[in-house]
Structure formats: C-alpha cells, structure tokens
Specification:
Order of helices and strands: HHHHHHHHHHHEHEEHEEHEE
Oligomer: single chain
Distance between the termini: 46 Å
Structural class: alpha+beta
Strand order of the largest sheet: 2-4-5-7-6
C-alpha cells in the first residue's frame, strides 16, 4: 500500500532520532562494563526479526508474484543468517575465544558479507520493483520459486561463511589488534558506508509504498556503526558502541513491526468484511425466502382472480379484458411497493395510480392527509380501488360526460393506533346503471377489506353512482 502522511511523519521521526544517535555515537567514547552476552542476544533478536520479515515478504510474493519481492526477501534471509553467524566468530560472545574462524578477522569478514549482501539485495529490489512485471504464477510455482530463493541464499551464506572462517588466513587482515583496524579494514568500512548510502538514495528516489518507506529506515539503522567504524578507532563496550547496536536492533526491526501492524490492520478489515458478507448472505437468504413466499401468494391470487373472473364473464373478450385489468392493477401495486423497498406506499399515490387510466383534469377529485400504507394494506386496497374505478368507467359516473369521482379520506385516532376512513363517491347529473350487485367485482369490494384487513365496507348503489365507505385499522409503518 502507499505510505500515508502519518507513516511519513513516523519515518521522519526515526531519521531525526538517527541523527541524534550518530552525534552521541561519535562523541560518546566512555568505556562501560563489558557484557559479553550483549552481542549474541541483540544479534539473535535481529536474526529472528529479519527471518520473520523475510517470511512476510515471501508470503506477499505468493499473493503478488514479483521478482523484486523475492530479491528483497533473500536480502533479509542473508541479514538474519549473518546476524547469527557473526556471533559465533565474535570474541568472547559465547566462550573466551571464538567458536568458528580466526579470532581477529573472521567476525569482521562476516560483518562485511552481512552488510554487502543486504544492501545489494535492496539495490536490485529498487531496480526491479517498478518494472511493470505482471507474472501470474500458480501457488505451486510460487512455492518452488520461494524454495529455490531460500536454498540459494543459504548456499551463498554458507560459502561466504566458509571463506570468512576456514579461509580467513588467505584473506587480507582487517585488524591489527582487537581495537585497531588496518588500512584495508578502514577501506572496507568506507565501502560499506557508500554501498548502504547508494541503496538508501536509490530506494528514496523510487519510493512508493509503506515497504519502501520503512526499508529506508532499516538501511539508515546501521549507518552510525559504519560511520564510527570508518572514521574513528573502534573501541568496544563504550557508550557509543552499545548505543549504535541498540539503535540498529530497534530500527532494523522497524520494518517487521510495520508489516505486523499492517497485517493486523488488513486482518481486521478482512474479519469485518467476512462478518458483513455473512450478514449480505443471511439477508439474501431471507429475501429469497420472502420472494418465494410472495411469488407463491401472487400466483395463487392470479389463479383465484382468473377463476373468479371467468365465472363472472359473459364472453371471452370480456374475460380477457377484465383479467388483464386486474392483473395490471396488482402489478402497479407491486411496482409502488418495490420502489419503496416494501416499506410502505402513500395512499395519495395509490389512489392516483388506480384512477390514472380514467382521470382527466375535471372528472376526479382526491383529498386527504398523508397516510402511509403497509404492503398488505396497499395490495388489498389497490384491488378494491381497481374494481371501483373499473365499475365507474364502465357503468358509473366516469362512463358519461360530466360525471365525477370524489375520493377523500381521514385518519382517526383509535387508542394507541389509528383508523383509516375512506369514502368513494360518484356524482353525475344523469342516472347511471351500476354493475349487478352479485358480480365478482362487488363481492370482492365487500369481502376483501374485512377478510384481509379486519375492516368494514359499506357499498351503496345510488342513482347518481356508487358510494363506498371503507374503514380499517392502520398498521404502523
């Protein structure tokens, strides 16, 4: 991921601390008590931190297989192995002498190999990381590449360790004594400083990500020790000597801490995503079950409407026309509910939708307060309004010039709930012939509201048109 402003500030603070440490290291030549266990303890911790960092980078390679990550991971393998191996050749670390190699020079040659292989790996990483490589490897091929990389790093480490220990007598001397370096040793320090500086500059110029940001801090971590070794006579177990290595321990492990933090952050996000996904899934199952239930109900209603319409139809044409109108009314109510996510439909919207096919600017009058109907109320009242509107258009006030339909309603308190009172009134100057009172439509108007909503319906066929009063308790939407 790209480094953000907070991470830039943290890295800058690390650099500021580095400057202070360098100043103290160069000035603090105060001799302290000799603690032989200091070197093996600190460098074994470095070894573990570097190898864990390599493991994180190999894991990243398995997800994003790029050669630059393999090279950088191998650099941390080198660093971890040499951090431990150098302690075996360090005088007095475990025993009075050394466990491997020459007591005077092997430790220094291992140090040189350590701080050559790691910066070189970083330089190659910096050169490769922006190459635009897009390797799509399988899990098996990624594991093979990781295995080969680890094997090569171990083999190179073993070869350099053999050269620095068994072949130490054939290599140029870097120390005249335990505290005084040769000219070759001083040149070697300058070489290490320049190599690390080149790696820092190259990564800084190509920095893009959090990894790049903290890799720079890791490279900076060893500069105090390299600078003091190259400019001053090395005196072990002084304040500066101890501080340089303590700083290298913490700053060198900073990338591991960052990787652990980012991994924890990503794991938290992943865990949250999994929880949300299981919820997006539970809701989907509920929606599918609800959809299945509603589809079955709709199909049952359509079948019932079809059967009832057939019984009350005088001809095939009449049957097709009546059935089509009733199915369209059901579909219109369903559309209104879908737009509101089945959370409720405004009564005004429902009335205007049912009367829309017959309404003009003068023949329909609608009035009433804002009332939101539940899905059950919407579907039941839509069917009743459709039958009333169809009857008015065929036989009632909407079938003659000058006729008018007035729909008004009110919401009356009823204890903790409320009751809807709706009146449908047709007005015409001429006498109209309403539908036969035993038809399917009139039966539906009289029975659906009491059956579905627990209300009452008063349907009257007056000379000037139908008057229908509907009352039912409103649900809380």
């Amino acid at each position: 991921m790209s480094a953000n402003a907070r991470q830039h500030k943290t890295a800058f603070r690390g650099f500021a601390i580095l400057v202070v440490v360098v100043a103290i290291v160069m000035l603090a030549n105060i001799q302290l008590a000799r603690v032989d266990a200091f070197i093996p303890v600190t460098q074994i911790v470095m070894c573990i931190a570097d190898l864990l960092t390599a493991a994180f980078l190999f894991a990243q390679y398995s997800v994003q297989p790029r050669r630059a990550l393999l090279v950088l991971a191998s650099g941390f393998v080198f660093s971890g192995l040499f951090a431990f191996l150098q302690t075996l050749a360090f005088p007095g670390a475990y025993v009075p002498g050394v466990l491997i190699g020459d007591e005077l020079n092997s430790s220094r040659w291992l140090f040189l190999a350590w701080h050559t292989t790691f910066p070189l790996a970083v330089i190659v990483y910096a050169l490769l990381k922006d190459a635009g490589e897009a390797a799509n490897r399988s899990g098996q091929s990624s594991r093979v590449a990781i295995g080969i990389t680890i094997a090569c790093a171990v083999a190179v480490t073993a070869g350099l360790t053999w050269a620095a220990t068994a072949g130490a007598g054939y290599l140029p001397s870097q120390y005249k004594s335990a505290t005084e370096q040769t000219v070759f040793g001083l040149v070697g320090n300058a070489y290490l400083t320049l190599l690390s500086t080149a790696a820092i500059v190259l990564v800084f110029a190509r920095r893009r990500t959090i990894l790049d940001q903290w890799l720079i801090v890791t490279l900076f971590a060893w500069l105090p020790a390299l600078v003091i070794s190259g400019l001053l006579t090395v005196v072990r177990f002084t304040v500066g000597w101890y501080m340089a290595r303590v700083y290298a321990l913490f700053a060198g492990s900073s990338l591991l801490f960052v990787l652990l933090t980012e991994t924890l952050f990503l794991y938290t996000r992943l865990a949250n995503a999994v929880v949300l996904l299981r919820r997006s899934e539970q809701r989907q199952r509920l929606l599918i079950a609800e959809l299945d239930h509603r589809v079955k109900n709709i199909l049952a209603e359509v079948a019932a409407v079809g059967a009832s319409t057939r019984e009350g139809s005088r001809s095939i044409h009449d049957f097709v026309q009546s059935l089509g109108g009733r199915i369209q009314s059901m579909a219109a109510a369903h559309t209104l509910l879908s737009k509101s996510a089945w959370q409720g439909v405004g009564l005004d919207t429902l009335v205007r939708t049912e009367l829309a096919p017959y309404a003009t600017s003068t023949n329909v009058k609608i009035s009433g307060p804002a009332v939101t109907l539940s899905s059950a109320e919407t579907q039941a009242l839509a069917r009743v309004l459709h039958e009333l509107a169809t009857n008015a258009a065929k036989h009632g006030a909407l079938s003659i010039p000058g006729g008018q339909v007035s729909v008004g309603w009110d919401r009356r308190p009823n204890g903790q709930a409320a009751t809807l009172v709706l009146e449908w009134r047709e007005v015409s100057a001429l006498q109209v012939v309403s539908e036969v009172q035993s038809s399917y439509g009139t039966n539906l108007i009289r029975s659906l509201i009491p059956h579905e909503l627990g209300g009452t319906v008063d349907l009257m066929f007056a000379v000037q048109g139908v008057i229908c009063k509907i009352e039912f308790p409103l649900e809380t939407v």
